[in-house]
Amino acid sequence: MADPAFAIELKGISKAFGPVQANKDINIAVPKGTIHGIIGENGAGKSTLMSILYGFYKADAGEIFINGRLTAIPDSQAAIRAGIGMVFQHFKLVQNFTVLENIILGAEDGPLLNTSLAKARKALADLSREYELDVDPDALVEDLSVGHQQRVEILKALYRQADILILDEPTGVLTPAEADHLFRILRGLKEQGKTVIIITHKLREIMEATDNVSVMRRGTMVGHVSTDETSPEALAEMMVGRKVLLHVDKGDAHAGETVLKVEDLRVRDDARVERLKGVSFELRAGEILGIAGVAGNGQSELLAALGGIQRATGKVTLKGADLPLSGAGANGRARRDAGIGHIPEDRQTLGLIMDFTAWENIAFGYHNEPKYQKNALVMDNAAIRADTEAKMATFDVRPPIPTLPAKSFSGGNQQKIVVAREMESDPDVLLIGQPTRGVDIGAIEFIHKQIIALRDAGKAILLVSVELDEIMSLSDRIAVMFDGRLMGFRDPASTNERELGLLMAGITGEAA
Amino acid sequence: MDYATLLQVLDSSIRLATPLLLACLAGLYSERAGVFDIGLEGKMLIAAMTSASVAAIYGSVWLGLVAGVLASMAFALIHGVASITFRGNQLISGVALNFVAAGITVLIAQHLFGQGGRTPSLEGAARFLPIDLPLAGAFASVPVVGTLYAEVISGHSLLVYAAALLVPLTAFVLYRTRYGLRLRAVGENPASVDTAGVSVRNLRYSAVLITGVLCGLAGVYLACALQAGFGRDMTAGRGYIALAALIFAKWRPWHALWACLLFGFFQALALRPDVVETVTFMKVPVPFLDALPYMLTVIVLAGLVGKAIPPRAGGEPYVKER
Asked: Where are the annotated coiled coils located (chain B) (predicted)?
């Protein structure tokens, strides 16, 4: 018999996927009516653990106690019956259904919809009032912002009478203001006696929102602490297993002359919708210009247009020479030849070919360079492999095996392969998109140092990231992107998260 | 063209639209659930052969109906196992079943009856006969409306009326019932259904089996009502036309009815080159008229009639993500 003061108690949970031990003898106890954080690097086993709790996977060993009672959770239906609600990182909503339809899906009251819809409409009104969860019940989900879609997911769980709410990486897609609102909602839930579990790799939101925190590393639980009694540095050390520098050490920038000049850059997508609505800026040698913003506000299009993989209009000059923005001269290879390196946002689709080996991936984009050729017909694979080995050593790629396919490396090491390829080609301008998305803290530290080193070597760097911390600690100048436009430039020394957060939501200084 | 001729053409449009409509609604269930089915053609064919054979041997169209539907459901089940349980490629599975059906129907019919792959002509109780709706005779003398009722609406076989009733029924199921909500959800985002604790597999199998039943009805209609017996390749691409109609209708039941009537009308015109000549004042070659429904199919599939957005999870086997 377990202690009924705990909403959830897990004892000795283990789960292996083939040879990979995702969870090893996990013990955790979450007191009722608290907000509990579970933190760990990517691949630490957090999501696996929560999937076991939600009935997606069956644990190989261990026991689950809900409110003190031993509970078997063979499927999601059982988890819902046990009062567990889950908000996944990638929402499980039907885009062309209304909010109401999404909420009743799977929890209908009878074979006909009319009664279920009427009941849900009433329940929704009550829940919205109680928890600051306003959404239009008749809106189509595809028309809602991500913040509102997340509310629909929370409402879905509450409509199913969840007492325990699990949120997986809940703030990944939110603006700081939306995240603050979310935390307010969660505190409201806590006041009503609900138990909330947040899974995240972000230290800030753990410190801000939780009562207790459990830390996972490589499939094991390494410790439980009360949030009041810990610090971000201590948590980071527990996550990684060694001391980590959370703040980037960098000297002053010595910005030189303008290298890249962008004037009135515009991009339309396939549906003829304008995604980039006239962006202008200058990028100088030896500086990092950070572009902040919530994902989907045109940052991807900006990188793609400058990287030559998306047609655009406007004027872009590189060291005084015009760059073609459409037609034959606008492609990735031409850009590389011109001296623009590109670390794309999504390494798995744009940065690497996952089934190809590390050495093949290191050569991609630069495979025509003389140093990789044996003669006019045949490539010098041995040279590429040797080059790959050297780059893997410099960039600390683990394991340092050039013949391993890209998909066999962890996210952080995949990213290091891309970073190594683009940085070592010695570009004048480096476009960097989400350099540390899905990358472990240890690797983040390393990649950040490399970016600073490249800046100090006099390169011009355009850094696009949705991580505000990253933008603030690396950039020499910050521009915020909203709805396809730049909302003005800020000096990282004199701005703060609040100001940037408002800009990210499209609110300029005068209006705020 | 006089009114009587128009009525004849409309009457024949309805008869020809019926197998299209049944197959189109069949495809609607499967595709709305996220399982693409290019094998409507094969299922119709196997049902046509089976029903005609059973009806010919036992002299009962009802036995033929049951056998035809069961045969079509068996094919649907194979498609389900391949594409749901084994997560195979849905197009390949569908195409394979079409080939199997084209070959096996002739083989079995030849083995049973030895008439070059045809079944014997069905007569009497072995066939669905036209039904006169109430008061059809009385209304026949009323000009315009009465003759329309008597000539076009009345006098079809039972399956024509069944197909017509399936349109509102399908619309009701799809938009007003729990099953319909889940069916649409599983075709758009199966993960939403899965996390809600509902089985994606069971839903998709149920949809695929409904497709089997309706394709079966379409095949039975072809062999035991429209024609009097099975002949090789008698579906003549109707399964594909039904798919085109489904896209044209953007996977909506009422629109499917209008799309199928349009295709049926074109098929009816091909049977009456004389009518086309009187209307257009020129001699349109018969092969061109024959090709018209298929040309319309190509035009529809080329997306020239507006953007049709298929169910978002269509064609994708559902794999639980980690």
From this structure: none
